[in-house]
Specification:
The protein is of the alpha/beta class. 32% of the residues lie in helices and 19% in strands.
């Protein structure tokens, strides 16, 4: 989808792309992004945590973009066939920025099924990459890297397309490892900020944790909601 020229011209800092292109087979199929969460949907929850962190927000999703119309976001389909996975969403974002928002130099990607994303994620990724003079930055927690939750320079678009289309590469971590990468580690107490929901039970548990946090934050002297 082509972007609004005015919107694209405002994208000068890192731009957030929410990856919603998965087929959600363990959820029974359909759009995981549009599953109920709290008083809205998983996508609403992720947007609530991410929209203020970038100079713009895009959505990576296949199929009819009209189902996301109420969010008012550019919707980017996979640029390659056969559902190559999350890296296709990364490529869609990089190529959209290259072609539509040339003043934007970086992309930050997050999945649509991570409802507790940190409110300082983009700032910490950018700062860590600058300190380490790295090409890429990604999140980490609990001793695990999360390559799909990362900061990608637009200049890697051509290399990523070649890796996907010519080599058949599918793993984000494998592609990221080809460049100088730094990770930003987050604590997992009281909740792992990068926990993702893949089954109905996991979704129910995440919603329970979120609702408990909402209730606690409404109490006098409460701390930060997860």
């Amino acid at each position: 989808m082509q972007g609004d020229p005015a919107m694209a011209s405002a994208m000068t800092g890192p731009v957030v792309v929410i990856l919603a292109g998965g087929r959600a087979t363990r959820m029974g199929g359909g759009d995981k992004a549009l599953l109920p969460f709290g008083e809205a949907t998983l996508l609403d929850q992720v947007l609530d945590r991410m929209v203020a962190q970038g100079s713009g927000t895009l959505l990576s999703a296949n199929g009819d973009p009209a189902r996301f119309a109420r969010f008012g976001l550019p919707v980017l389909a996979d640029p390659l066939p056969d559902h190559p996975g999350p890296l296709a969403g990364v490529l869609a974002g990089l190529e959209w920025l290259r072609d539509q928002a040339p003043t934007a130099t970086d992309l930050v990607t997050v999945p649509t099924d991570t409802p507790f994303l940190p409110l300082d994620l983009v700032a910490r990724l950018v700062a860590a990459r600058e300190v380490e003079h790295a090409d890429l930055a990604c999140a980490a927690s609990g001793g695990r890297l999360h390559p799909v939750i990362g900061l990608w320079p637009v200049r890697l678009a051509a290399a990523l397309r070649a890796a996907l289309a010519d080599e058949g590469l599918r793993r984000a971590g494998e592609f990221a490892a080809r460049f100088r990468r730094v990770s930003v580690a987050y604590e997992t107490d009281p909740v792992d900020p990068f926990v993702n929901v893949n089954t109905p039970l996991e979704l129910a548990e995440a919603e329970r944790i979120w609702l408990a946090g909402q209730s606690a934050s409404a109490s006098p002297g409460a701390g930060t909601t997860p």
